[in-house]
Amino acid sequence: xxxxxxxxxxxxxxxxxxxxxxxxxxxxxxxxxxxxxxxxxxxxxxxxxxxxxxxxxxxxxxxxxxxxxxxxxxxxxxxxxxxxxxxxxxxxxxxxxxxxxxxxxxxxxxxxxxxxxxxxxxxxxxxxxxxxxxxxxxxxxxxxxxxxxxxxxxxxxxxxxxxxxxxxxxxxxxxxxxxxxxxxxxxxxxxxxxxxxxxxxxxxxxxxxxxxxxxxxxxxxxxxxxxxxxxxxxxxxxxxxxxxxxxxxxxxxxxxxxxxxxxxxxxxxxxxxxxxxxxxxxxxxxxxxxxxxxxxxxxxxxxxxxxxxxxxxxxxxxxxxxxxxxxxxxxxxxxxxxx
Amino acid sequence: xxxxxxxxxxxxxxxxxxxxxxxxxxxxxxxxxxxxxxxxxxxxxxxxxxxxxxxxxxxxxxxxxxxxxxxxxxxxxxxxxxxxxxxxxxxxxxxxxxxxxxxxxxxxxxxxxxxxxxxxxxxxxxxxxxxxxxxxxxxxxxxxxxxxxxxxxxxxxxxxxxxxxxxxxxxxxxxxxxxxxxxxxxxxxxxxxxxxxxxxxxxxxxxxxxxxxxxxxxxxxxxxxxxxxxxxxxxxxxxxxxxxxxxxxxxxxxxxxxxxxxxxxxxxxxxxxxxxxxxxxxxxxxxxxxxxxxxxxxxxxxxxxxxxxxxxxxxxxxxxxxxxxxxxxxxxxxxxxxx
DNA sequence: TTGTAAGCGTTATCAG
DNA sequence: CTGATAACGCTTACAA
Lengths: 339, 339
Fold this sequence. Notes:
Two copies of one chain form a homodimer.
Chain A: H1 10-17, H2 21-29, H3 36-49, H4 55-62, E1 67-72, H5 81-93, E2 97-102, H6 107-119, E3 124-128, H7 134-143, E4 147-150, E5 161-163, H8 166-179, E6 185-189, H9 196-210, E7 220-223, H10 228-240, E8 247-250, H11 253-265, E9 275-277, H12 283-287, E10 294-296, H13 299-316, E11 323-324, E12 328-330
Parallel strand pairs in A: 1-2, 1-3, 3-4, 4-5, 5-11, 6-7, 6-8, 8-9
Antiparallel strand pairs in A: 10-12
Helix pairs in contact in A: 1-2, 1-3, 5-13, 8-9, 10-11
Chain A binds a DNA duplex through helix 2 and helix 4.
């Protein structure tokens, strides 16, 4: 007795078209290699049966999956959504499918997910930031799975990266702040552990202070996970200190929004009593009151170029090139000269 | 000559541990079935070699992938992010991995992605809303891939669903609005084509009008894709009409935020000159000025329960149960009695 | 408790 | 241009 109405296979198609499985396979993967007449016969058998190739079998035989994996720190806030969407659109155009997972900013989880994605046959990986154990890079090398780092541009690192110079960008913003006359600076940063972007942004502020005659040691710093509530709480602490800052540079827009809202709760005027800046220029930055002066990151461009670069690595077995993107300060209302 | 430093296989592990591949496989999948001594030997071989099972091979042999696919309309706005995150956490707890793709609200894209996910061996699918061609449901049946619908609760539909009654929820909100004395109502809705949620929300408003002596025909309606800018533009049009509405009920928070901002640009006071309501209660709703009165949807609970329900369907071959969740009106400042 | 061996559905190599 | 047939790496009866 024949199989009980389970998914049709190559073999079923071959039988129905009166050809071999090899021919069917060719029709599907490299149609020119088979004469038009048989091709038509095969194709009509294909859709008569509603045949869909079995992905696992194909991967195993071809050792290619046309799948790209991406591991992002979180799906919950908008920071990665836009860039990832662009990434996905671009790879889709080129015949690849995207697999996304999120690591919740946890290195162990990220490592596990990298292995999962590789085991699933991902042809390449998109990673966020450079900071991770060398063991992981060794693993990727051994498995010969190319990876591209985004959201950070550091050409001398082991993996090619596409993004911007987080340190330089934040330095520029901090210089703007200092140029306005601010002397007591604070920063609300994301957790720097395993996060080169967060760390470099703080360094950028210090750089700006140094080159403007302020001691970097006076920078008040709070590290906290990227959540609006945490930004609010950190801001509260900062303003409760003996010498509260006149400007608070936040490591990203989410924290900055928390700070701005907390200021309102505390009856502080922004930027009258205290200036606040963000980083990323996500939607929230425009919506909040007062709107955030922040650093604009070309997320969509980054996503698209990361896709192009990674596919290049996959298809031509190249080692990958790093690309630097420009950021720009977007001036809105949350920053002004100290009162 | 041996293979050139490619990924180790079951066979390599077996050789090194001096057992058969079957035993290694058992150690990995059902450790109790093998005696402790050999198990240890195998395990140490496993990590000496840095062995990771080949996923495609496993899927092919076991006809199970421990993968669940989800297709959401978009990753770009926050509506689905929170629920999906909860969904992912829950399935991860139970040993499954999530594959996400987004359809950009396009039915053809969604269909293609459903097929892709199934071909990839997804054990089950999470779908948003009920509206789609029957052909797709037939396909899923044939392939015996269970699917769960979320963000909409309609028990009489073909697929089990978990969510809330969109019509009823919006009706409740509209009654609140009408109860305040509003008589000229408008709605800015998402595109209703292929989107039962959007359509039912409009129906809910009409229901409320009918049962309160207002003619549903007087409801001014604009349909537009879910983007802040579109909400703003729709609001502009609405207010430019001869008899502008005194309250605008938006199909979701994203559109409502656009409306609120446009009001500000136009010098209209919210809620003094016009009331605006949202739907979903995403973060933006709290952040915008004035904060939105909106409908709270228990996204995380929905995600978790969808996961539990779907896994139940997968593992016990059950047909799936629909679950209704409650929504609640969250009162903030964007709604008040007409001036 | 463990080993043997037959698939799983493709692709790819070689002949024809 | 097309057909056999051997991989691919794993799971799972069935046997020992």
